[in-house]
Write a structure and sequence with these properties.
Blueprint (H helix, E strand, L loop, with lengths): L12 E5 L3 H11 L4 E6 L8 E3 L18 E4 L10 H12 L4 E7 L10 E2 L10 H14 L5 E6 L1 E3 L5 H6 L6 E2 L7 E3 H13 L7 E3 L8 H12 L7 E2 H4 L5 H5 L6 E2 L2 H6 L9 H16 L1
Length: 295
């Protein structure tokens, strides 16, 4: 277990590429520690700590954005050709910076289908989906860049404002049963806090780390608990073979693969303690957030 820590404070400057759900949560979390953080978006917005980056239209951040940067977290997905948008156009700017650390958010989809068996960082990638193949290509680009990068592989992400509860409330949930189908997931707070923990604790370095909760399970169990929390009656589940006729190709693709993602490296070897160990605790938090907004 790690026992060597450093303090994050206003001496550190973070650039977060991709200010979406995970990126914004991370930026908010690291700001609480006193760090200076800028987040990117494709177009200018009202956030005073925003900068514009759009590789497709060759909109590149000014050099001043990189002044004094110490840490980068990239949350931007591969481009249509499977290339990493940040490395494709910003490698020279990044190489000129005095970076201490770079993080890249990837996906556990790169492990492919294991028929419900466990996967860990020791398993060789075996992606079958095109989007996962592209992610693996981006991982390789980062790893071979000679930059101080760590790869974080993530399963299904949820949290306040983006959970099964909102899907149920907006009637966008599919109540589907597929025998022995397992999914892994992680609360967005654990993504942010695990990465902060890794940055602060420097005794051991692992280039690839899974961030997942303790309890992979069927999606149906999660949905059942969601309906229970909302005090609603769950519709009868539809068998996958019947339901898939009405699912989009990308929705169907999530059901093709079946695996359980191990967090033993993160939680046992490195000593990170999950905030939301399972979907029940996580959804309880999401419900508390909904109630807070309505009160």
């Amino acid at each position: 277990m790690i026992n060597s820590t450093s303090t994050l404070n206003n001496q550190y400057k973070f650039l977060v590429f991709g200010g979406g759900f995970s990126g914004s949560y991370f930026a908010h979390s690291i700001r609480k520690l006193g760090c200076f953080v800028l987040t990117s978006s494709r177009t200018k917005n009202k956030d005073p700590y925003n900068f514009v980056f759009d590789s497709e239209n060759n909109i590149i951040p000014e050099d001043s954005i990189f002044d004094g940067v110490t840490h980068i977290l990239s949350c931007i997905p591969p481009d249509k050709n499977g290339k990493d948008p940040v490395l494709k156009v910003l490698t020279n700017k990044i190489n000129k910076s005095s970076l201490r650390w770079i993080g890249y958010l990837s996906t556990t989809g790169i492990y492919g289908n294991t028929n419900g068996n466990w996967v860990s960082e020791l398993d060789n990638p075996n992606p079958s989906q095109e989007r996962s193949l592209k992610r693996l290509n981006c991982e390789k680009e980062w790893i071979t860049s000679d930059l101080p990068v760590q790869i974080f592989r993530l399963p299904g992400i949820y949290g306040p404002g983006r959970s099964t509860l909102e899907a149920i409330a907006s009637n966008k949930v599919n109540v589907i049963h597929k025998d022995k189908q397992i999914f892994s997931r992680v609360h967005v707070a654990d993504i942010a806090n695990a990465i902060i923990y890794i940055i602060k604790n420097k005794l051991f370095f692992y280039q690839i780390i899974n961030i997942a909760d303790d309890e992979p399970c069927s999606q149906l169990k999660v949905i059942e608990y969601g309906y229970k929390l909302l005090g609603l009656k769950m519709p009868s589940p539809v068998l996958f073979e019947e339901a898939k006729k009405n699912l989009s190709p990308i929705a169907q693709s999530f059901w093709i693969e079946n695996r359980k993602v191990s967090n033993q490296l993160l939680c046992k070897k490195l000593g990170y303690k999950l905030i939301y160990k399972n979907y029940r605790i996580g959804l309880d938090n999401c419900l508390a957030n909904i109630n807070k907004l309505h009160n």
